[in-house]
Each structure stands twice: as C-alpha cells, then as structure tokens.
Amino acid sequence: MPDPTLLSLQRDHLSELQSRYETVLAEHGYDSVLIASGAAPYRYGDDQSWVFHGYGPFVHWTGLAGQEHSWLWFRPGRAPVLWLYQPVDFWHATPELPDEPWRAYFELHRRQRPEAPALTQPGRLAVIGDPALLAGVPGEHNPGPLLAALDETRVRKTGYELACLAEANRRALAGHRAARDAFAEGESEFGISLAYQRATRQREAEAPYHSIIGLNEHAGTLHYQFYDTRPPGRSRSLLIDAGVRYRGYCSDITRTTAGPGEGRFAALIHGLEQLQQRLCALVAPGVSYVEIHRKAHLGIAALLSASGLVRGLSEEDQVATGVTRAFFPHGIGHFLGIQVHDVAGRPVPPPADAPFLRLTRTLEPGMVVTIEPGLYFIPSLLQPLLDGPQGRHLDQTLLAELMGCGGIRIEDNVAVLASGAQNLTRGGL
What we know:
The protein is built from 11 helices and 16 strands.
C-alpha cells in the first residue's frame, strides 16, 4: 500500500479534476462525457497486438495505464461511473485493481464485454478516445474544442501528480545508476537495458517509452531504437534516455557517460551539465520556454568555443548562422505528465529557428517540463556545415576524434512552483 499521504493527495486530485471537468463541460455546453480507455490494435495479418498504453484522459482519472476496453462516464455533480473490462478468461490474466481509497470516489462496475456501455439520460454527450473503438457509440465523437479544453486540465499538475512524478524520477534514477555500472563493466546495449529493467523493476513494455540506449556513435542518433547484443570492441560513450511509469505518471531522464581514456568527451559532458543546470535554474513562473531554448543555443555556442571545436565566430554568430543547430538540432524539452510528451504544449507554432520545439508557452505554477540540452556529432548535419562557409571555423581533427562518441544529452524533469521551481530529478519534492 502506498504512503497514506499519497492516497490522500489522490482524493484531492480527483476532487480538483471533478471541478475542472465541470467547468469545461459547462463552458462547451455538454451534459456528460464518456471516455474510452482504448485497446491495443492487432498487427496487420497477425493475431498479436501492439503494446498498449491507455488513453490520456482515462489515465488522468484512474492511473490505470494498462486497462483496455474500459470506460469512464463523467456527469457534473455526480460520481464518475467506471466500467472495467474484466472478463473470465483462461488465456490471459485480468489486471488486479488495487484496494485503495480512490475506488470509493467512483461508481465501479466490472464487465465481461468490451463495447461501450449503454447510458441512461446522458443529455448532450461527448465521447472521446481512439476513433477505431467509437464506431456506433451514440454521442459527439472527439469534438475538437472540447478535447483542447480537456487537454488544458492536464497542464497544471495537482499535488498528487507532482508526488507521482517525483517517485517516477526516484525509481528511474536507480535504473540509470545500474546502467552506468553495467557500462563500466563492459556490457552491451542489450545488457545495459536488462540492468536498467532489473533496477527499476519494470518491464520494457510497461515503461513510458522505449528506452534509448546508445554506445559510441549510436549516441548520435537521437531516438536510437536498437540494442546491440554484443559490446563494441571499445566502449567510448554511453547515452541512456529512459524513464519509469508510476501510477500512470512518467519520468524522462537522460544521462551520458564517457568511457576510459575519453578525456575530451568527458570535459564536454561536464560543460554541458553545467549549462543544463543553469537552464534548469531559469525555470520559473512568467518565463518564456522559447527563451530558455534560445539561451540553450547561446550556451552551446560558448561550449563549442571553449572546447576549441569552433574558432573565430562569436556566440551570437554561431547561433545566427546555424552552427549551433547542427550540434543541437532538437528542442530544449517538453511538458511531462501521464504522457512523456504531454499535451497542450504548443498553443502557438514554434518559431522558425526552433521547428522541433514541443513547448511554446510561458511557464506557470503546476507545469512540469524537461530541460534537455544536447551536443551531438551527427555526420549528416555536420557535413553540410563543413562544406559551407562556416567550415573554416570548425576544428575538423577534433570533430573526427569525437565523432565516434556520438553525442551528449542531459535531461532533468523540473516542476514550476509559485516561488520558482523544483528539480524532481535531483532532489524530489
């Protein structure tokens, strides 16, 4: 049984969610909303399904990320009705529902059938979820303005959500320590993945996303998705981007480690970590997230100059001419919650100089963001730079030496508080 304080926070969370949903439905003229948990589709031409992760609004209410074919009906002023699909089945196990106080908040039913339940007097009804599962269900399916407003209910986290995110960070850090130790012992990418899973006690399929584990040049592929089963002849670097899901909430942490004898690369890791901590310290109410991203590029430029990778260009000119974008091509981070890239981050499009930025908002208390600067040696991005007018400012010998290390990314999860911020990865709440 979790800490009683956490369970009390969960009841407060449900009360707050009830209030937020009542406001949204009133503003948009709906009497009730039916939420589908979703289900994993079957692979084409096969009888095996994909890995399942529950639909965000359903998980927001219940924390049940693995509960397929279930439904939640919300009506203002009434207890939410929760239908859980729990068939009698000798092929598969039925998920165990924890015996916790939150269950009393719902009118709870167990069902043998996966289709939507029949509703009595739903009024003007919205039905939200995977369109493939909503065919034939009465009501308005996935109305855009309502979905946008419900996404907004997830932007400012409750105390319960912050506690879950902090615990997800704590558990993931145990995995990162085990991964670093496995790297030091000469393990393969696959062996490092197993060490991470053992330490977090979470299967890869239950994790919030497929862990990114890259040795050497593989660390230069931002979402590297394969695990070599044999270690390289020489392990020069490790980049691991991996999290844990706790009660539906995700952590998303990245660490980079230099191998023995990689002094230059280790110095770059140290420099990037110092920059990353300065960027984390910028997180506060009223701060533009886009400006944090832009300060990250100026910091990358300073690191490139200090390391000797770039010479004869000011930090501002490196940014203006696209030099830093070749080394740091992605955004500084994103919202975090029950989805790794949580919703409602881009009410306006990202600026032209940051096309991949996933968050364009001004920060407010309750938001949780990632801060993840990177510095990579990606041939397809650096070669055009080397062939162009800026190529004469780059130290090609040093680049060639570092290319086999792939790249660096350091990522923490940071909560915006009324008085500033709290780094959930480096200290919790």
